[in-house]
Amino acid sequence: MLAVIHPAQPKDTPALVQSITRTCAHYAARIPDLPDVAGGLAEAIAKHLVWVAERAITRLILRPHAQMPENLSLYAHLGWRETGRSGNTIQMEKILPV
Length: 98
Hints:
The chain is of the alpha+beta class and 98 residues long. Helices cover 32% and strands 23% of the residues. The longest helix is centred in the N-terminal third of the chain and has 16 residues. The strands form two sheets. It has a three-stranded antiparallel β-sheet with strand order 3-5-4, with no helix packed on it. It has a two-stranded antiparallel ribbon with strand order 1-2. The chain contains three helices and five strands.
């Protein structure tokens, strides 16, 4: 199945900010240099840098913080593999079945 991917629209901002913020909320207290994970999202959407998938896609990329060991372990357990590092960011990839 082909993915239907399109640039996020300004109307998508609140839901995306809420989802991203909730996902990382438990790390905010223990990672002092964790950036505002949803900061700049509205501007990125306005510049068409954020994309939304409406259907299943075949490849996903995550960039979790290196000090999120629980998430890193979970991602590895779920089939994600590390593909790179830059500072406190680890890039992970997962290929999904077609």
